[in-house]
Design a protein that fits this description.
CATH class of the largest domain: Alpha Beta
Order of helices and strands: EEEHEHEHHEHEHEHEHEHEH
CATH topology of the largest domain: Rossmann fold
Largest sheet: 6 strands, parallel
Bound molecules: glyoxylic acid
Structural class: alpha/beta
Low-confidence stretches: none
CATH architecture of the largest domain: 3-Layer(aba) Sandwich
Distance between the termini: 22 Å
Strand content: 5-15%
Length: 302
């Protein structure tokens, strides 16, 4: 029996794999931790947990964990890939439609009593069907968004660091940005994707284009994005993630034609339960001397 720290409340039933272990809500004398993306584990934090063998995050993103530092300390780090792809793609596609058709802005008008009647020239958005979608980052979630786009008769381009050899691959991000009507971001946050969509690249996008970000906030320069929206150099934006969550840039809050969601990409009952269960299952496996499928540094278990 090992002691397992769970840093946050998990969905009912998801901790079943840990039966037989002692689950605690605080303390540092633990062999395993189940955490979430708001818990930062840098080298200094890891040093507080001297008996730690494994750290599992209930998220696919792991930019909040210093995996190299964990590896040096012999801690196996696990995340939850796969189980949230379709749910996150649903949300990204929802944002594509909501931003293109100005859902938030026009609904706000209605609620504020500003809808005085049907107007042929009022509240005109951009068509999603038939538009060109540019998927940046062509992993599992990017591909799930591309599958949805096929149902809307969209032309789909994709860009990734490594050539995919598949139809629609665009080697130069700049070319994709200049061509797409809708750009949807699906890259992990790393040193090379931080501010990937910066002022210069935003300026390459069409003034009629829509930007959707369900990956990580720091991938986009928020100040530059707000400026592009204010100046009408970008048609609309749909965001689920922010540079300094839970703070949202004040200029984005005020920016026109912008849909802002509070990091809910994977937030369904079924998916959050599956994610938490997978994290707990990975912890069970490491504690049992097995190598879990979702381990980011399996060498430490060799
Ligand atoms: C959510 O953002 C995740 O990384 O799972």
């Amino acid at each position: 029996m090992a002691r397992v720290l769970i840093t946050t409340e998990l969905p009912p039933g998801s901790t079943d794999p840990l039966s037989g272990h002692e689950v605690v809500g605080a303390g540092t004398d633990v062999e395993a931790i189940v955490c979430q993306l708001t818990d930062r584990f840098d080298a200094e934090t890891l040093d507080r947990y001297r008996e730690l063998r494994t750290l599992a995050t209930v998220s696919v993103g792991f930019d909040h964990i210093d995996v190299d530092a964990a590896t040096t300390r012999g801690v196996a780090v696990c995340n939850t890939p796969g189980v949230l792809d379709e749910t996150t793609a649903d949300l990204a596609f929802g944002l594509i439609i909501a931003a293109s058709r100005l859902f938030w802005t026009v609904e706000a008008d209605l609620r504020a009593g500003l809808w005085t009647g049907f107007g042929l020239l009022d509240r005109l958005g951009r068509d999603v069907h038939g538009a060109t979608l540019g998927v940046v980052g062509y992993g599992r979630i990017g591909r799930a968004v591309a599958r949805r786009a096929a149902g809307f008769d969209m032309a789909v381009l994709h860009h990734s660091r490594t050539p995919t050899g598949e139809p629609g691959f665009v080697a130069e991000l700049e070319e994709l940005l200049a061509t797409a009507d809708v750009v949807s971001l699906h890259v992990p946050l790393t040193a090379s994707t931080r501010r990937l969509i910066d002022r210069r690249r935003l300026a390459l996008m069409k003034a009629t284009a829509v930007l959707v970000n369900t990956s990580r906030g720091p991938v986009v320069d928020e100040e530059a994005l707000a400026e592009a929206l204010e100046e009408g150099r970008l048609f609309a934006a749909g965001l689920d993630v922010y540079e300094r969550e839970p703070a949202v840039h004040t200029r984005l809050l005020a920016a026109p034609r912008t849909v802002l969601l509070p990091h809910v990409g994977s937030a369904t009952v079924a998916t959050r339960t599956a994610m938490a269960r997978l994290a707990c299952e990975s912890v069970r496996a490491v504690l049992a001397g097995e190598v879990p499928a979702t381990c980011l540094n399996p060498a430490v278990l060799a």
